[in-house]
Amino acid sequence: MKKVLVLVNKSISLFYFCLTFSLLLPSCAFAQDSEQNFIIGELNHPRVNRFYKPLIQRAYRDIGIAVTFEKVGGERGLRLLNEGMTDADVIRYDVVSQPDNNIIIVPPALSHGASFLLCIRGAQCDKSVIQNPTKAIAVTTRFFFNMHISPEELNANIFEFDDFNHVINLLLNGRFDYAILPSDYSEKAIFEQSGIEYIPLVEHELVHVIHKKHAHLIDRLSASIANQLDLARSNN
């Protein structure tokens, strides 16, 4: 009977020790769990696939975090990140981080970009196009937010699509004469080869973003991203 009581007492003591320890270090336990199965949203954009996604993957690998990428659309991707269903997003405009949401920026900026008005060859191509009620313009989702305008402020007919490549194809196939798309200026040669004129409308910093539950990673991740950017510049 005494042996049974001793074993019970030891079990109870061990339970309370573990409980107390976990209460004292909740943030450490959470951080460890939250970095398992780390999911990063990625937009279907040629520059993201070719350059930014591998760079971000290397940055996480260098701080010991294995990541999984998930294809997301512009609007859906931000909703998933804000709700904590994904942990980060490869690259976004800096305006996505707002005081009333759960999205935070990891410095430094990955690049500088803009929302470009794209026009097929021979079409009128100036900023007045977006105020012309006879013009139809294909855009990606988040267009109005990125441009800091509301739909009623534009007179052109705006058609939103969730995929960058789809909008480019609509333009090249003659379905639309105009499009407005995000770019980090790296597609300028592609636009020119395709006979597309382009005008920057609104400029932004392009940044990596994470859910605020991972704020403890910012210092290490920031240093790792800066290192990857330096390596990329030295290799060019």
UniProtKB/TrEMBL annotation:
Keywords: Signal
Protein's name according to its UniProt entry: Transporter substrate-binding domain-containing protein
Keyword Signal: yes
Protein origin, superkingdom: Bacteria
Keyword Signal (UniProt): yes
Signal peptide: 1-31
